[in-house]
């Protein structure tokens, strides 16, 4: 697209691309930042940009009702799961947040539901591209959602944002996060994505999506695969990097098959 053509695109439709660009640049800055206070600011910026991207893209592509519903749904589900997790240790295991994450609601830092929002919409968008039927779509979205956390959680523990009381047993190569956390994220993902799928179906505007889904998909790809590169190259977390790539392989394979089947003349 030429610069002239880009200027003719309505500003609202350009917003997801602009937010994605800012998100990627900020994510690149994270592993290059060594000062703890500056890294905290970068972490906040990543989550704020990512959550804004989710809401803005949902509104531009599916309509304002979907965007508002997404914001409300994720906030409620995230706070509910996290508050129960903090109080009971179920379903993730026993963990505590540090004061670095700032203000809380029911013991849950405000940043946490925003991080869920950043992760939830791209996960659902990718699943919607891969699966036509709701049960499969929900399971794929939950898998992507939980896989993202497998990469993210060790990074956040390493930064001191939260700690696990009993980090073992964990995935091989990850000794700071228990397997119960993965099970909890899969459960939370299934609940959230099931509700989100119904929400989108009931609130989306006729004829949507009104714009493409490239922005959240690019953000998802960079935050997972680029994050894995940062883990092994700068953050000293090779185990989570390996798991991030391994969990992405089935999704990449499914995307390749989907693209091949969608090509003109495929199957002839």
UniProtKB/TrEMBL annotation:
<feature type="transmembrane region" description="Helical">
    <location>
        <begin position="67"/>
        <end position="90"/>
    </location>
</feature>
<keyword id="KW-0812">Transmembrane</keyword>
<dbReference type="Pfam" id="PF04240">
    <property type="entry name" value="Caroten_synth"/>
</dbReference>
<protein>
    <submittedName>
        <fullName>Carotenoid biosynthesis protein</fullName>
    </submittedName>
</protein>
<feature type="transmembrane region" description="Helical">
    <location>
        <begin position="212"/>
        <end position="234"/>
    </location>
</feature>
<feature type="transmembrane region" description="Helical">
    <location>
        <begin position="182"/>
        <end position="200"/>
    </location>
</feature>
<keyword id="KW-1133">Transmembrane helix</keyword>
<dbReference type="InterPro" id="IPR007354">
    <property type="entry name" value="CruF-like"/>
</dbReference>
<feature type="transmembrane region" description="Helical">
    <location>
        <begin position="110"/>
        <end position="131"/>
    </location>
</feature>
<feature type="transmembrane region" description="Helical">
    <location>
        <begin position="240"/>
        <end position="258"/>
    </location>
</feature>
<keyword id="KW-0472">Membrane</keyword>
<feature type="transmembrane region" description="Helical">
    <location>
        <begin position="41"/>
        <end position="60"/>
    </location>
</feature>
<feature type="transmembrane region" description="Helical">
    <location>
        <begin position="138"/>
        <end position="162"/>
    </location>
</feature>
């Amino acid at each position: 697209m030429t610069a002239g053509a880009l200027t003719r695109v309505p500003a609202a439709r350009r917003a997801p691309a602009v937010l994605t660009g800012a998100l990627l640049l900020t994510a690149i800055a994270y592993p290059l930042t060594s000062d703890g206070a500056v890294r905290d600011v970068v972490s906040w910026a990543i989550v704020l940009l990512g959550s804004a991207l989710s809401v803005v893209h949902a509104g531009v592509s599916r309509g304002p009702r979907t965007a508002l519903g997404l914001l409300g749904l994720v906030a409620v589900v995230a706070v509910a799961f996290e508050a129960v997790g903090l109080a009971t240790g179920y379903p993730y295991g026993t963990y505590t947040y540090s004061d670095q994450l700032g203000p809380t609601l029911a013991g849950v830092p405000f940043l946490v539901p925003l991080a869920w929002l950043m992760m939830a919409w791209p996960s659902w968008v990718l699943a919607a591209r891969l699966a036509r039927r709701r049960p499969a779509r929900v399971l794929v979205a939950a898998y992507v959602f939980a896989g993202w956390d497998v990469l993210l959680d060790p990074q956040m523990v390493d930064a001191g944002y939260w700690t696990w009381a009993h980090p073992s047993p964990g995935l091989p190569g990850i000794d700071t996060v228990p397997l119960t956390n993965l099970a909890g994220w899969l459960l939370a993902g299934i609940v959230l994505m099931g509700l989100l799928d119904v929400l989108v179906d009931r609130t989306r505007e006729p004829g949507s999506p009104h714009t493409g889904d490239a922005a959240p998909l690019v953000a998802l790809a960079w935050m997972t695969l680029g994050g894995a590169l940062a883990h092994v190259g700068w953050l000293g977390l090779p185990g989570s990097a390996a798991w991030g790539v391994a969990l992405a392989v089935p999704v990449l394979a499914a995307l390749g098959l989907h693209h091949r089947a969608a090509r003109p003349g495929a199957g002839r």
